[in-house]
Amino acid sequence: xxxxxxxxxxxxxxxxxxxxxxxxxxxxxxxxxxxxxxxxxxxxxxxxxxxxxxxxxxxxxxxxxxxxx
Length: 69
Ligand code: SF4
Ligand code: SF4
Fold this sequence. Notes:
Layout: E1 4-6, H1 15-19, E2 25-26, E3 33-34, H2 44-48, E4 54-56
The structure holds iron/sulfur cluster (2 copies).
């Protein structure tokens, strides 16, 4: 599981898809899927979501922000 997850409050607006610097949010199904092997836990998606649909899971990121791609 990634450091963040999308809940059913998601309206599908797409803001997190455009904002995520790691392209960790995938538009597959609803709720959207956050890829654990990409998400660094930067929380930019939490900030940008107008529906407060992105929540922290408490899981640590598998790789740090700014790390090797
Ligand atoms: S926490 Fe950061 S890296 Fe993870 S899905 Fe959100 S915007 Fe992307
Ligand atoms: S920003 Fe929020 S409401 Fe919009 S697609 Fe992402 S999780 Fe869903």
